[in-house]
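Quick illustration, no need to memorize.
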Amino acid sequence: MASVPRDIRQAGPDALEIAWADGKVSRYRVYDLRVACPCASCVDEVTGERLLDPRRVPAAVKPLRIRSVGNYAIKIDWSDGHDTGIYTFDRLRGLAESP
């Protein structure tokens, strides 16, 4: 139940906010979400090695569109042209809780 969002919204120009069903609210820098993309272009599917060089992501990157993927994830179309990453709710919750 913890990884079920109640609300997902843009929270200013550089942040995304998720209100979770358990009452917790997580705030993410959009740049950090873009760099954390889990798609095969950004992370090697076999080794798990990060392929995306964060220095190649524009500091001003923004989500252009956020769509639901079933009942388990969101897909973000980014201003840098990237649009293949699916962010599961479990992954998003983990990103919010990691130091």
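The radius of gyration is 13 Å.
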